[in-house]
Design goal:
It is a single chain. The protein has one domain (about 1-45). About 95% of the residues lie in helices and about 0% in strands. It has one helix and no strands. The radius of gyration is 20 Å and the shape is rod-shaped. The termini are far apart.
Length: about 45
């Protein structure tokens, strides 16, 4: 029983890690997209 609980806890921790990685990836790609957009706007303006 303890082994099973330990396993579940590990899986939960892994899922939390994946959530964090996913969040970081999403936010960084959004920032990246904004930078591309700003860059294209500024180059077009000049």
């Amino acid at each position: 029983m303890y082994c099973y609980v330990d396993q579940v806890q590990r899986i939960k921790n892994l899922m939390v890690d994946l959530d964090v990685v996913f969040l970081v990836f999403c936010s960084s790609s959004t920032i990246f997209r904004h930078n591309i957009f700003l860059f294209s706007v500024t180059t077009r303006a000049s």
